[in-house]
Structure to design on (243 residues):
């Protein structure tokens, strides 16, 4: 069994070797602490199916940080929203790696939001908060609508649904980035209509080879304000996606 020090060194090396990004020892220790909190909480609620440490490093931490390879996306001194954050991926690793961003994490499951806020407190992360709300409701609040430089989502939903949820939060010239994998040709084609209706440009696909995952980061820039009718009322973007 790896000691905490061994886990810290392993995580640093995996991030360095795979993404060519340098974690400090303190940052790596924080990620290990986060992993341990997640595994402990996972005993009483379903946060993740990935519990082995090495697998979690690859599928959660390195995967979350892979967005750092995109040259035209700044993760420092920007306002970021992680929509459908679940246990806090990718938002929390991004906050640890690039601490000068302002991070909001959104999920409709209260117990997951409570866990993420516990992580934020335990790790002492500043300018970060998890919020319990539905995207359809929060997107109509002027404090959040079109207020984010970057909206990210690793949630399991099709691109058309995610675009309707996420684009209303993106400010002009900001970006929405979805973490995808596999053959998404048809999924992207079906999402182009709602992307344009909500003010986005043609999606750009960035393929990153991560272990055996083949991660694709789908990047959409906001070029036009999102019409007030989007997102539609609760549940409709997922039940009846516009394609």
């Amino acid at each position: 069994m790896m000691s905490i020090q061994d886990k810290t060194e392993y995580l640093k090396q995996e991030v360095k070797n795979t993404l060519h990004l340098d974690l400090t020892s303190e940052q790596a220790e924080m990620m290990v602490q986060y992993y341990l909190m997640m595994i402990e909480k996972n005993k009483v609620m379903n946060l993740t199916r990935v519990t082995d440490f090495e697998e979690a490093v690859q599928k959660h931490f390195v995967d979350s940080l892979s967005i750092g390879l995109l040259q035209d996306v700044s993760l420092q001194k920007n306002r970021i929203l992680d929509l459908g954050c679940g246990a806090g991926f990718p938002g929390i690793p991004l906050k640890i790696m690039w601490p000068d961003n302002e991070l909001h994490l959104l999920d409709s499951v209260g117990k997951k939001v409570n866990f993420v806020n516990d992580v934020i407190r335990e790790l002492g992360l500043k300018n970060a908060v998890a919020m319990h709300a539905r995207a359809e409701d929060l997107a109509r609040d002027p404090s959040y609508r079109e207020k984010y430089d970057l909206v990210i989502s690793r949630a399991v939903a099709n691109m058309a649904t995610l675009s309707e949820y996420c684009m209303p939060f993106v400010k002009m010239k900001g970006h929405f980035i979805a973490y995808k994998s596999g053959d998404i040709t048809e999924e992207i084609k079906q999402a182009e209509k709602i992307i344009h209706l909500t003010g986005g440009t043609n999606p750009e696909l960035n393929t990153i080879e991560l272990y055996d995952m083949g991660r694709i980061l789908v990047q959409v820039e906001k070029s036009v304000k999102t019409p007030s009718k989007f997102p539609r009322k609760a549940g409709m973007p997922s039940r009846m996606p516009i394609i």
DSSP finds nine helices and seven strands in the chain. Residues 34 and 119 are 7 Å apart (CA to CA). The two ends are 49 Å apart (CA to CA).
